[in-house]
Amino acid sequence: MTELIQEKYPKTRESRLKALSIIFGYPVINISEMAQQLDVAFNTANQIIEDFISLDILVEETKQKRGKLFRFKPYLEILEREYMD
Q1: Backbone φ/ψ region at 72: left (φ over 0), alpha (ψ -120 to 50), beta
Q2: Contact call for residues 33 and 42 (beta carbons, < 8 A)
Q3: Sign for the pseudo-dihedral over CA of 7, 9, 15, 16
Q4: Which domains occur in the chain, in start order?
Q5: pLDDT given for residue 22 in this prediction
Q6: What is the CA radius of gyration of the chain?
Q7: Contacts for 53-61: CB closer than 8 Å, 24+ residues apart
Q8: Which of 5, 12, 58, 72 sits CB 3.0–4.6 Å from 52 for a disulfide?
Q9: pLDDT attached to residue 32
């Protein structure tokens, strides 16, 4: 995942790699929490989340206009698989 982020977003890779690190601790997150954790504007956090959605790192959990939640799908799938076995 880190290689993909570095390749696709060379100019902004640092903030995206930090965001990747954050979602390991917060596998379900909203835009406001991401903005707070990264210490960036809401719009910046929103763009990072949108980028992660396009890379299939995050998926939108809720289909509402406000208060959207996003899941770190690959990570949660591994945890769920380990838990089920």
Answers
A1: beta
A2: no
A3: negative
A4: 2-84 (1.10.10.10)
A5: 96
A6: 13
A7: 55/1, 55/4, 55/5, 55/8, 57/1, 57/20, 57/23, 58/23, 61/28
A8: 58
A9: 96
Tokens encoding 15: 């903030």
Token look-up 């899941």 returns 71
Contacts made by residues 45-49, CB under 8 angstroms, sequence distance 24+ = 45/19, 48/15, 48/16, 48/19
Find the mean pLDDT for residues 70-84. Answer: 87
Give the whole-angstrom CA distance, residue 61 versus residue 30: 10
Closest CA to 23 of 43, 51, 3: 51
Residues shown for the chain: 85
